Amino acid sequence: MRILGINALFHDPAAALVIDGRTVAAAEEERFSRRKHGKRPVPFSAWELPEQAAAWCLAQAGLRPQDLDAVAYSFDPDLARPADTLGLDDPWDHLRLDYARQAPYFLAAALPGLDPAAVHFVPHHLAHAASATHAAPDAETCSALVLDGRGEAASHLAARRVHDRLEPLYAQQLPHSLGLVYEELTEHLGFLRSSDEYKVMALASHGTPRLLPELRRHVYSTGDGGFHAVRVPWAELARPRRPAEAWTQDHADLAASAQHCLEEVLLDLVRWLHGRTGDRLLAMAGGVALNCVANSRIAREGPFDRVWVQPAAGDAGTALGGALHLAATGGDRPAPMPGADLGRGWSDAELEAWLKTAGVPYDRPADIAAEVAEALAADRIVAWFQGRAEYGPRALGHRSLLAHPGHSGNLERLNDVKGREQFRPVAPMVTAERAAGIFDGPLPSPYMLFVHRVAPQWRDRIPAVVHVDGTARIQTVDRAAEPLVARMLDRFEQLTGLPVVVNTSLNTAGRPMVDDPRDALECFGSAPVDLLALGPFAVRRNRMFAGGSDPHGSDPHGSDPHGTDPHGTDPQEAA
Questions:
Q1: Active site residue 228
Q2: In CATH, what number does 344-545 get?
Q3: Catalytic residue among 11, 37, 260, 398
Q4: Among 330, 373, 489, 558, which is least packed, fewest CB within 10 Å?
């Protein structure tokens, strides 16, 4: 079966294509539209579809809309109820339901040739659960935990996968929502709601949970698989912070208290779920599953032997989950995700055409991995653009900013490059075989969804990636899956004695992650980055801004120069 998955209603619109149970492509609309999260999560935007992402998914497989067997839309309006009956204060929420009911016709207009009857509504949290259980490796029998802001009428689902069937076990009804509580806290602390929740998690490490007893009165598990989470009096705990205002210790303490309270409730939910299933594997999805600190505590203290988190755990992942769910119920056997690199990619010839069109000086080193390692060893910042783009919010060695981890000032330097708050950490990447000697936590960790304690003897050696609490959110690199990244890490270790490189997303604050070559060149041109590794090609700042230097001049590293004819091949024609 050929199934297109669509997420559109709330936020992070995305599309995914599953053929005969295998994930072929998946991408978020923000990477095409260049609007962070694709749109704001308000009722008035519910009609907006991931048109560009969907069209690309089909083109990637050489399909037309009429070739599809089904389209999965990850929300079922028949399960929803008016907001006021759910205890939610959202007088325009009915627009979401109106738009959802008309989604088959909106999709048919966006994808000419599609039969509206091919569109199937998949319950929101069921799509989340399928995105985790059907995409995880070795997960034919496993438990699923989904937590986010809201779906049709619930904010949580506990379920179990047995072969290709998902059995719901418990759903927490609205208005109780751990995701909405964390969103409210995000806004109270002066950050952008439904966008900056990860900043609250980072800020929490700077505080102490002294307000935990008070929070436990409002947010707690109920012992039956559900929880109470509503109407937290944030202003009584700490005064609101204005967006441009410096944070105080009270703000950090409130963040720490809320983070600790969230972890306690999640542990109770996980223990209840394990008591019902006895499974060894827990698969997680939903926006709350992007809280890597909580994930690590679940892995460390919870009863499951293994915890797997969907790398696109937020609503974008429901596009894939909806498609996998229809595949499973339609008779196809879902295959685990091949990795997170499911987005757009370009051939070497196409990348070179972009460089020629941009008219920038570039060269092609004998080995771009070694070239980048040498630049990093010299304490230069590198923009790394390789292979297909990542699906989900983490840069995983395809659209990354890289730096030397051994200089503590590189944290501030990178946050300045990206325009971020200085309390936010950056992450290390390390080969899977070297990780256990440096980091203590769930391994392997290929998707940056857990935090690990940094071994004491390494903290002073890689200070740029050690958070204030002594942890790091690592990415382990599988040598077979990512040979180029592994080769770069090997060469960097040869030069520095350090098997770790700083890896943060290739973007600047408030903008989506870089996706196509134009994005990469624009980001490189506007941020103080020393080297752009665009596929096998190197673009160097000292040559690009050399003030009238000949772009056809000799390469300082001795490799063959490549001319940059400003009237060269158009990349679209080259494609």
A1: no
A2: 3.90.870.20
A3: 11
A4: 558
